[in-house]
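Q: Could you fold this chain for me?
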Amino acid sequence: MPYYHESQESGPDSKVVTMLQNILKTEITLLIESSSPSLPIEEKSFDQYIINVEEIIFAGSYSMIYLANHCDHYHYPLMARIFEPASQIDPHKCKFLRLLKHLGKRNPWLISTWGIYYDTNHRIALFQEFAIHGNLLEYVRSSNLYVPELQLIGWAQNIYNGMDFLGSIGLCHRSISPKHILLTGDPDGDKIIAKLGSFRDTIIYHDIQTQTTLHQRCRPLCRRFEANFHAPETYGTDSEEFNPISADVWSYGATLFYAGTRTYPYNYKRPSKELDSEIRTMIQSRINLSAEAKQWFYGLLRTDVTKRTPFDRIEKDKWFRIQVE
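A: Sure. Below is the predicted structure, expressed as structure tokens.
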């Protein structure tokens, strides 16, 4: 079920629109009114987790990440992120933790959250799925080859499915980039699959009162000169706004384009005044992409939002629908 947008109301099937509106209202209300996302470590369920303190993945000022396991699913790789009290995260009111609990293990194309716990000092233990192949940025940088096109299609389908689920429950990721695409093993085979992770910037995009998309305020224009995979229209003055769904489509396209070409869609340090033409030239210059792939990417990366491929039309493209074994 794709993102809801106002134009659907004029469509032929009003029952489907009403159903989608009701689902969005239920999901958004559940998220906003949810109880504390964290459980005390005295809960018996906490004892089912094993934190491998000698296997450090990340060490920061306010948190550490370790490899972890669950007793009932020992062969399923997990990670435990331990937030120290100095992080000042409220285990009961933190919106980010509420979101992670709400997502839980509901969708196979999102990095799953298994449990959130806290102690008397407000030290927080967050248990999540561990992506054994790291993130897409690391994968591309460590490889001397372009991601093969069939693999690219598979990952495009994986990420699309994750975005589709978020959209169906009223959420927009807002930070799709190679760093936030996690690669792991397929539990039903030996191929590498892609999942959406890092939900810190995720927003509620739907206003359940007006049944409209909540537009977002633009970022400062000075941030245009960064390779952050945000759509061009997300930069502007304080009074300007953008559609977060359309912006996520551009980020999705830019992320996959980087995976297939190891190139940003345009020269972000000196962007052209004719940015759409620059992006088109960049896409056409990639000799490792098929003509069908180039056409698909250009549709996603149009600078004019009205000409950009809408989210619900992505899966209808012939290149996207190629069966991946």
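A (continued): The chain has two domains: 39-129, 136-314.
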